[in-house]
Amino acid sequence: MSDTKVILSEREIPRQWYNIMADMPRLPAPPLNPKDHTPIGPDALSAIFPMALIEQEVSPHRWIDIPDEVLEIYTLWRPSPLYRAKRLEKALNTPARIYYKYEGVSPAGSHKPNTAVPQAYYNKKAGIKRIATETGAGQWGSSLAMAGRMFGLDITVYMVRVSYDQKPYRRIAMETWGAKVFPSPSNNTNSGRKILETDPNCQGSLGIAISEAVEDAATHSDTNYSLGSVLNHVILHQTVIGLEAKKQFEMINDYPDIVIGCCGGGSNFAGVSFPFLYDKFSGRQLRAIAVEPASCPTLTKGEFRYDFGDTVGLTPLLMMYTLGHDFMPPGIHAGGLRYHGDSPLVSQLVNDGIIEARAYPQLPVFEAAILFSNTEGIIPAPESSHAIKAAIDEALVAKQEGKEKCILFNLSGHGYLDLTAYADYIAGNLVDHEYPESLIKESLSKLPVIK
Ligand SMILES: *Cc1c(COP(=O)(O)O)cnc(C)c1O
Predict the structure, then answer these.
(1) Does the Cβ of 299 fall within 6 Å of ligand 1?
(2) Is 368 in the pocket of ligand 1 (CB under 6 A)?
(3) Confidence of residue 94 (pLDDT cuts 50, 70, 90)
(4) Using a 6 Å cutoff on CB, does residue 94 contact ligand 1?
């Protein structure tokens, strides 16, 4: 009988990250200055990022060394296990082999510490004292809080107001790891004050919180900014997931036909799939599928064009699929997937037809999560459950076709701090939101026009 888990030793943690920019057929168009729309150079970013991360952002090198100090912290939870979902396969009665890489074993319960740790490390090395960042439901904020503590950095987190009020546990985790957490919009920044003046009860959004954190960093010389997804260096750090998975498949002499990840800003999807795309670029057959919520359908219904990363318009313009920077997605339970834009790398690969994207409403996603938890045991994060749903659908297609497909998905996190979402599902209080076509149209109509 084949093993349920494939476990690597600590010595087998990859020593280098994989940079897909060395191999992709077409690079994304460069970021633009938000005011005059000219391409920005590394200098423009140096007010809020350390040079080491700016270099990674534009690096042409295929392999980039993981510093020893980062590897040492990675050993606290890496290598993460690769599971064969035998009991799920049996429940589906499918000939497909379903595997999942489980990133919920990290201290924060998701893949996000894979990049929080190197980001904290490079900032510390550059002499920075404090990092400001934003968080939605608190996954990213808690990851950076933990990483900051390990390198003796102060962490300031702007947390979307509605989550700050309604989801106290991740806030408590952040504070336990020593971070200072403010509900956003806050009175700390001009961006926050301006929004509170017109709407004192504003519930906040990820885009507003980004504006606040960027402003905080830009106006304090000892403070930098840090982003948990979207940017090239974040994607780079997450490739440790797929690189480990490749070693694990080698150990069991198997290889995926399909690689699946849920997609908010694109980092866990890219992390699991890009090392496999490396083989696809040299001729291997492989499908990669990015899965998003139907209520925030960036890749499947957005436009591929330049847009701001934040609501106020402080960040450089990024070439990406976007729903428009003031698009406010409905309040679905997969908070980590409610971002208006997407990684420029993932966007370019979707635009070039190298990877696929699909969207699911939240009810079938929760049904998939229930089936997964009832067979495999782990209660998955609502975000990750989008990948589970796609894996199940592909396994059912394989069954229909009578094919022995090999399917890998990334289980980006556990759902033990998201149990109110499950409570709502069980009580029958979850609804599927209509695809918000008119809101998207309105939001897209306000995008900057690039000459
Ligand atoms: C933040 C988060 C996501 C979405 O972010 P990506 O950058 O798209 O990976 C997905 N799953 C979990 C568990 C998260 O915390």
Answers:
(1) no
(2) no
(3) very high
(4) no
Q: Please work out whether the CB of residue 141 comes within 6 Å of at least one atom of ligand 1.
A: no
39 secondary structure, DSSP code: B
Which of 102, 111, 235, when mutated, tests ligand 1's pocket best, judged by the most ligand atoms within 8 Å of its CB? 111
Domain total for the chain? 2
Domain-terminating residue out of 194, 212, 227: 227
Strand ranges inside 190-326, DSSP E: 223-225, 258-262, 287-293, 303-308, 317-322
Distance CA 421, CA 409 (A): 22
Range of the domain at 149: 113-227
- For residue 404, count CB atoms less than 10 angstroms from its CB and return exposed for 0-12, middle for 13-18, buried for 19 or more: exposed
Which of 339, 412, 416 is the best mutation target for the ligand 1 pocket, counting ligand atoms within 8 Å of the beta carbon and taking the most? 412
Give CA–CA dist 178/289, Å, rounded: 37
Task: Tell whether 30 is covered by a domain.
Answer: no
Write out pLDDT tens, residues 300-348: 999 999 999 988 888 999 999 999 998 877 777 887 888 899 999 999 9
Is 268 in the same domain as 359?
yes
φ/ψ (deg, to 5) at 230: 70, -55
Cβ count within 10 A of residue 192 = 25
Those residues whose C-beta lies under 8 Å from the C-beta of residue 237, and which sit 6 or more positions away, are 17, 114, 115, 118, 119, 271
Q: What tokens does 20 get?
A: 């897909």
Cα three-residue angle 151-102-256, rounded to 5 degrees: 125
